[in-house]
């Protein structure tokens, strides 16, 4: 009896007696978009809306990232409008004609919109006066629609403004307006999360 007990104790202390192994942990749940858990259709709609908003924000983001050195468009008698590039910082000199005072809807700030003498360039500048030197953003062509009423008022006063006019928003420089960039970054995250999850769901069907 003693010998048997001694052998059992020796086996226990030598490691021959083993404890039962713990069951392996289940794999972590796969992360998916909250929209995709409900319906892949909602994720597709989120992708479409995010892409549309990104397209709207892209001109502002592109201008934010554009060069900080202005394109020199010259002055009276030596204008270089052939060098104009939409959505870029530009500088030009000259006299404003047919000026129309306007007020911004959101901020209530006073601005002046007028045509640069001898050109088909509209200048939108802050305040009601200032030196005849303008430096700012050459707005994209889509922005012409925002100036339809002002241009109509200028034409009613005899202003010769063509249909394909350019608009320079004086004082607006690159790397100043962060909200469009922040909004675009958030939208890119939404697109990445929903796009990856939707693609995985389609591939696993």
From TrEMBL:
Membrane-spanning segments: 40-58, 178-199
Biased composition (Basic and acidic residues): 1-10
Protein source organism: Anaeromyxobacter oryzae
Keywords (A to Z) from UniProt: Membrane, Transmembrane, Transmembrane helix
UniProt name for this protein: Uncharacterized protein
Keyword Transmembrane set for record: yes
Region (Disordered): 1-33
């Amino acid at each position: 009896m003693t010998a048997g007990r001694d052998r059992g104790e020796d086996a226990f202390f030598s490691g021959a007696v083993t404890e039962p192994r713990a069951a392996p942990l289940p794999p972590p749940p796969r992360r998916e978009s909250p929209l995709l858990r409900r319906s892949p259709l909602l994720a597709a709609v989120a992708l479409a809306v995010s892409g549309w908003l990104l397209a709207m924000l892209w001109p502002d983001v592109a201008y934010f990232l554009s060069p900080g050195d202005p394109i020199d468009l010259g002055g009276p008698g030596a204008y270089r409008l052939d060098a104009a590039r939409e959505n870029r910082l530009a500088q030009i000199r000259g006299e404003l004609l047919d000026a129309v005072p306007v007020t911004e809807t959101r901020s209530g700030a006073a601005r002046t919109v007028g045509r640069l003498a001898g050109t088909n360039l509209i200048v939108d500048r802050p305040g009601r006066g200032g030196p005849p030197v303008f430096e700012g953003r050459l707005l994209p062509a889509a922005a012409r629609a925002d100036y339809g009423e002002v241009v109509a008022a200028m034409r009613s006063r005899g202003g010769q403004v063509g249909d394909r006019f350019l608009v320079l928003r004086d004082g607006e420089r690159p790397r100043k307006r962060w909200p469009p960039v922040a909004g675009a970054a958030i939208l890119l995250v939404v697109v990445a999360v929903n796009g990856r999850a939707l693609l995985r769901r389609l591939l696993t069907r």
